[in-house]
Design brief:
Blueprint: H1 3-13, E1 17-18, E2 24-25, H2 33-36, H3 42-53, H4 75-78, H5 92-101
Antiparallel strand pairs: 1-2
Helix pairs in contact: 1-5
Length: 107
Amino acid sequence: MTDIEVLEFFRGELSLHVTFTFKPIPVELDTPLQDYAEWDELPYAIEDFGEKFNVDVSVIDFDFYYPWEIETFWRKWFNKEPIVQVSKPLTIRMFAESAKAGYWLYD
């Protein structure tokens, strides 16, 4: 089990983001999934991850990871201060480390 295997799995499960010029923006190991994936597709990807890598994902407490403030396109034009998040980022690296351990390591 490698980080790359888990990264490739999530790249196959989640929709690919693109820039306005249609340049692809692939998800990376430390990309906060709350910023990258829509809430209507992320739970399905996590469930599929649990089945594929034999990790009990039912123990994940999403209250630690949500609410999450998503930066809008226009915000960066009018406000230079970064958004202060009140929740922890949920990353693919967390899933990769949990897959290696065989159970969810966080929360």
